[in-house]
Write a structure and sequence with these properties.
It comes from Streptomyces phaeolivaceus. By secondary structure, the protein is of the alpha+beta class. 36% of the residues lie in helices and 23% in strands.
């Protein structure tokens, strides 16, 4: 294993983290236990297998290195192997619990230790002995959703998954060679600047369009308390397909519309009211290609849209979401407001280091809620022979925001993972029930 520089977006995630807003993504997997000691056996397996996974031995270290484009020094970070890696420091077996999500919420509050490989696995045995859960946490600078899936799958029981293509090694560069290439790099820098200005202008224009007429709710914004709660919702994928076939569009359109309807129901039930509420949702879009040559780095853009929370008609809400998503897709992930993530490639690492705290606080000016989809393999996953029954993806919570929603489809079910600031949203379970009721309402509307 060799060290490599963090990609710009990875570096941005590394630098915007704070104690109140840790930048790890996670997944809570619930397994069917085949014995009362299945949880303890799973913890031993995870630690043993983690030692053999190169990606789990990597830590992130701040460095000062020469700029690859211009002869300047800048503050970046490298991803490098750890020689004295102790996997049992990263895999922890907890006491039995009757509520996996309550424990997961407390664990989501804790930032990952930055001096070690930034990941953890927490094994939570169930009190009844029939199940156990594993909470995987990965820092966003180490992995995006697809990369985290690859790392987690590497410590599960073996399944057939396509191996990523190895990155070709670059020949060593001497100083004379760098000087000779300087004119081309100067031209490349100005070309990059032009692309950055084009993206920036598109982001500003479409963000303004999405902001006009948008109004969030105080329930979705809050001062950071540093607390976290999580909840999970299971939805039958066949129900989602029935709705999609009736109205048209994609499965993802239906899943986003369900979030809009659930927010409406939740706001009305808690007395905040949904009238006039149309929060801006950021929908991340992966730009990773299959078998990419750069598997470690984040490859993300995104779409920005107003959720039609204020519309009382469930089918009209779905059509509004479909129209907005079609418009975003026509513009492409390089042109919409969500493309702001691509600007990270055009910022010097020193800019990420110095500007990270400011960028993190600007999130609430850009969007009100994150709604992200995390793909999972269709094959059943197992750990120690115990089948994975449920899997809830959990997204980081941006500064000044109270709620984030992540969705995965696995083995015929849709799994909604909800993460909230526990003090700002003490009734997260009410929102999870609203998700289920919204699916029923959409089904009923399709049958009329």
């Amino acid at each position: 294993m060799t060290s490599d520089l963090l990609a710009p977006l990875d570096l941005a995630f590394w630098n915007i983290e704070s104690a109140e807003h840790p930048m790890h993504l996670a997944a809570l997997g619930v397994f069917t236990a085949n014995s009362p000691t299945a949880g303890a056996h799973a913890a031993e397996l995870l630690a043993t297998r983690a030692a053999a996974v190169p990606g789990l031995r990597m830590r992130i270290r701040d460095v000062w290195v020469p700029n690859v484009r211009l002869p300047l020094a800048f503050g970046g970070a490298t991803r490098e192997p750890v020689a004295d890696f102790e996997p049992f420091d990263h895999v922890r077996l907890h006491a039995p619990t009757a509520d996996f999500h309550t424990v997961a919420g407390r664990l989501m509050e804790r930032p990952l230790e930055r001096g070690r490989p930034p990941w953890e696995a927490h094994v939570l045995p169930g009190e009844d002995g029939t199940s156990f859960a594993v909470l995987f946490k990965f820092h966003h600078a180490l992995a995006d959703g697809l990369r985290a899936l690859t790392l987690a799958a590497a410590v599960m029981d073996p399944i057939d998954m396509p191996a990523p293509r190895a990155r070709p090694a670059e020949p060593p560069r001497g100083l004379l060679g760098e000087v000779r290439k300087l004119p081309d790099r100067v031209r490349g820098t100005f070309s990059d600047l032009g692309r950055a200005l084009d993206i920036g202008a598109s982001v500003a224009r479409t963000t303004l369009d999405a902001t006009l007429g948008a109004r969030s709710s105080a329930a979705l914004t809050s001062e950071a308390s540093g607390t976290r709660s999580t909840a999970g919702v299971l939805v039958d994928l066949d129900d989602v397909h029935r709705i999609r076939k009736t109205v048209g569009g994609t499965v993802n359109d239906v899943l986003i519309a369900v979030v809009a309807g659930a927010l409406r129901r939740w706001l009305d039930e808690r007395g905040d009211g949904s009238e006039g509420v149309a929060p801006r949702a950021l929908i991340p879009v992966s730009k990773r290609r299959p078998r990419t040559a750069h598997p470690q780095g984040n490859r993300l853009s995104g779409y920005l849209m107003k959720l039609p929370v204020d519309d009382p008609d469930p089918l009209r809400r779905l059509r509004t979401v479909r129209t907005a998503m079609d418009r975003n897709k026509d513009a492409g992930p390089n042109r919409g407001a969500g493309a702001v993530a691509l600007l990270a490639d055009h910022v010097l690492p020193l800019g990420h280091r110095l500007g990270g705290p400011l960028v993190s606080q600007a999130a609430r000016l850009w969007f009100d809620i994150l709604v992200t989809s995390v793909p999972l393999p269709s094959l059943g996953l197992r750990l120690g022979g115990c089948p994975l029954a449920e899997i809830y993806p959990l997204a980081p919570l941006a500064h000044g925001q109270s709620l984030a929603v992540a969705v995965s489809t696995y083995r015929g079910s849709v799994h909604y993972g909800l993460v909230a600031d526990a003090e700002a949203v003490p009734d997260l379970e009410r929102l999870s029930r609203a998700v289920t009721r919204e699916v029923r309402e959409l089904l009923a509307a399709c049958e009329v």
